[in-house]
Amino acid sequence: MTPSRVPGPEVTRPAVSRRRFLGITAGVGLAAASARFDRGVGPLLVRAGDQPALPARPFTLGIASGDPLPDGVVLWTRLAPDPQAVGGGMPAPPVSVRWEVAHDEAFRRIVKRGAATAEPDAAHSVHVDARGLGAGRDYFYRFRVGDFESDIGRTRTAPAADASPSRARFAFASCQSYQDGYYGAHRHLAAEEDLAAVLWLGDYIYEGGVSPSAVRQHEGPEILDLEAYRRRYATYKSDSELQAAHLAHPWIVTWDDHEVDNNYADDLAQRDDQNPADFLARRAAAYRAWWEHQPVRLPAPTGPDYKIYRRSSFGDLLTVHTLDTRQYRTNQPCGSSVDIGVPCADVDAEDATLLGAEQRRWFFDGLIDSTARWDLVAQQVMMAPVSFAPEPANPVINLDQWDGYRHERGAVIKALAVEPRNPVVLTGDIHSSWVHDLDAETSDASGTRTETVATELVGTSISSEFPFSEVVTVAIGSQPTVKYFEGTRHGYVVGDLTRQELRADFRYVSSTATPDVVVETGASFVVEDRKPGAQEA
Ligand code: FE
Ligand code: CA
Q1: What is the mean pLDDT of residues 467-483?
Q2: Is residue 7 part of a domain?
C-alpha cells in the first residue's frame, strides 16, 4: 500500500467540453435559438389575470432534476428574483410556472409540458414529477414564468426495471463548504462527465456564521430559523458552478449533519447549547428548507420527522440504497461532542444506532430483496475501522462515524455479506479520499484480517477542508484494510459500472481558491464482480 500515491496525470479541461451547450449565462445561449416556449397548453393553476408581475428574472438559483425513474424524473426550481431578500424577493401570491420536457435541446420535439404552482409557503419552489417519459433516455427541460425563461437542463431517466444494461456511470460527491473554496469540481462534473446520476452524500450547505478570512463569505450568522436556512441555500445555489452540475445531470440527494447542525444526533444539538425542543424546531426548519431546494420525489415535510431514505434502481445492473445516518441516531459515544476521541466501552453498546430500527429493517429487507448485480449504499460517515493515531496500541477513533457504533456496524456488515451480491459502500463526511476493504469482523483496527465481504469508497469534498491530513498519513501505514488515503485534495469520484467490474476514478481539482481549475484522475481502483475489496487499476 502506498498512501498518497498520485499516478501520472490524466488532465482534462472543461474548455473542450462536449456539454458546452449547457450554457449557464442567464437568458443567452441556445435557449434563444430554440422553439418558442408554448404559451397555450397545459392547465393554468393560477389564472393569467391573477399572475403577479415579477420584478426581475426569477431563475437566479438555477434549475435541477433528480430521483430518476424508468418513466420519469423530478424537475425543480425556486423563483427568487432577489435571492437574499425575504421570500426571495417574490410577491406573496402563488405563481404559475410552466415547464416543458423535450427530446431535443431546441425543444422542437416536446414530450411533456404542464404548469405547476409555486407557493409562498414553499419559498416559491416547484417540484414537478414529470412522468410518461421513456426509460433510459436523455431529455431536456426548462421552465417559464411570464416572459422569463430558465436555462435548459439535461436529464436522464433510469433504465426499465427489466432491462439488463451493460454499463452505468455515476458520480458521488459531498461537502461543499462555500467559505472553504470555489466549486471548480462542479464545473468539471458538469462539462466532462457522462452520468446516469450524481449521488450527493451530504453537507450541501454549512450552517455556520461568517468567516471573515475565508475566500468568500456566508451571508450572515449561524442559521437557526426557516428564513435563515432559505437564505443560506440561496447563497449556495447562486453559485454558477453548482448550478452547472445540476443542469447537466439528475441528482439523488441525501443529507448529513451540516444541513442542520454539526454532529447533531436525532434531537440533540452538539455544537450549540439548544435544548431538544428548540433543536427539533430548528431541525424542522432545516428539513423544510432542504426540501424546498432539492429535486427530490418526497412530500413536503411538516415537522421535525422526515423520511428521506429511499432506493433507486437502474435495471438489473444497479440498485442505490440512499441512507440517513443523522435523524435516527443515538448520541455519539464516550461523552464526546467532537469527532476524534479515545474509544470507551460505549462504542460497543448494543442499543447504539446510526440508522434507527425502522430504517435498518428497511435497508436489510432491501438488500435481501435486491436482484441487482451491484448494490451501492449511498451514506454519510466512514464505515471501515480506522485509527487516527500513529500508535496502533493506542487507537484514537472518529466517534461520529461507524467506529462509534460497532454493534450495529457488525449487523450491517453481515447484511452486506449475503451472497450473491456486490455491495459497495459510498461515503462522504470526512473531506478526504479513502478506499477500504470491509472485512467480516471489523471490531478493531489492529490489523487482524478476516474475509473481505464488501468495499468502501470514501470520496473527498467538493471544497471543505480536511484538518488532519498529516496525522492520518502517518497513522494508516499499519492498517491493512486501508487501501488508499489522500487528505489534501478536493473533487469527486466517478464510478463506471459494468457487469464485470466497478471502476472508481478519483477526480481532483488543481485548486479551490479559484473556480478556474484543471482536473486530473489521481487514483483509480477496480472492484471485480463477486470479488469484494478494491484493487488499484
Ligand atoms: Fe462536510
Ligand atoms: Ca460533523
Answers
A1: 78
A2: no
Name the more confident of 12 and 476: 476
Query: Do the beta carbons of residue 90 and residue 124 sit within 8 Å?
Result: yes
In a domain, 448, yes or no: yes
Question: 177 CA distance to ligand 1 centroid (A)?
Answer: 7
Mean pLDDT, the chain, whole residue set: 90
463/177 Cα distance (integer angstroms):
6
Confidence at residue 12, expressed as pLDDT on a 0 to 100 scale? 37
Return the C-alpha cell found at 140.
431536456
Sort 215 into a burial class: Cβ within 10 Å, 0-12 / 13-18 / 19+. Answer: middle
Grouping H, G, I as helix, E, B as strand and the rest as coil, residue 360 is: helix
Determine the distance separating the centroid of ligand 2 and the alpha carbon of 114, expressed in angstroms: 41
Is the full-model pTM beyond 0.70? yes
Using the mean position of ligand 1's atoms as its centre, give its distance from the Cα of residue 464 in Å: 6
* Å from CA of 176 to ligand 2 middle: 13
Helices (H), 70-213: 184-192
Whether 69 is in a domain gets the answer no
Angle ∠(236,238,240) on CA atoms, nearest 5: 105
- Going from the Cα of 383 to the center of ligand 2, the distance in angstroms, rounded, reads 15
The total number of structural domains in the chain stands at 1
CA–centroid distance, 307 to ligand 2, in Å, is 21
User: Measured between alpha carbons, how far is 85 from 300 in angstroms, rounded to an integer?
Assistant: 23
- CATH number where 489 lies: 3.60.21.70
Within-domain flag for 17:
no
Say how far apart CA 363 and CA 382 lie, in whole Å. Answer: 17
**Residues 6 or more apart in contact with residue 128 via CB below 8 angstroms:** 74, 75, 76, 99, 114, 116
For 476-490, the pLDDT digits (tens) are 777 889 999 999 999
- Domain around 251: 168-206+247-281+310-536
Residues with CB under 5 A from ligand 1 (ion): 175, 203, 464
Residue 390 has pLDDT above 90, yes or no: no
Max avg pLDDT among 109-118, 417-426, 447-456: 109-118
Average the pLDDT over each of 95-109, 176-190, 319-333, 472-486 and give the range with the smallest value: 472-486
Residue 174 CA to ligand 1 center (angstroms) comes to 7
- State the distance from the centre of ligand 1 to the C-alpha of 258, rounded, in angstroms: 7
Rounded to whole angstroms, how far apart are CA atoms 231 and 497? Answer: 38
Give Cα 289 to chain centroid, integer Å: 16
205 Cα: distance to centroid of ligand 1 (angstroms): 9
Q: Which residues surround ligand 2, an ion (CB under 5 A)?
A: 257, 262-263
Which H or E element spans position 282?
helix 276-292
The pLDDT assigned to 272 comes to: 61
| d(CA 213, ligand 2 centre) in Å | 21
Query: Cα of 35 to ligand 1 centre, how many Å?
Result: 42
CA of 262 to the centre of ligand 2 (A): 5
Query: For residue 402, which phi and psi values (nearest 5 degrees)?
Result: -60, -20
Per-residue pLDDT at 19 exceeds 50: no
